[in-house]
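Appendix B, record 7
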Amino acid sequence: QVQLVESGGGLVQPGRSLRLSCVASGNIFNIYTMSWYRQAPGKERELVAEITRGDNTNYADSVKGRFTISRDKRTGYLQMNSLKPEDTAVYYCNADILTAFRRSEYWGEGTQVTVTS
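Structure tokens (predicted):
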């Protein structure tokens, strides 16, 4: 069974940084695209950043130049710099994973990021 576990969220002041991590575990043959989504209260879940197996990246316009997505084996990272109050949300890891049985998308349970002075 595949699990994605996020960590690194917290409460920070505007302008500060956080680094989120997402560790994938289980009977995994391959991890294709890894992504970070976020959902703020009263809003829909939105794509923040994604990185392919070949390390091609894509970012939401709202985070370009501030956030950096990366990956290493079974771990994905989201480095968040110059945080703003509007970055406050629950951040979710998503990954396209091939196991012995199928290829499917998996989600973590999320980690809260709160940016406030």
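Remarks on this record: The longest strand covers residues 28-39. The mean pLDDT is 97.
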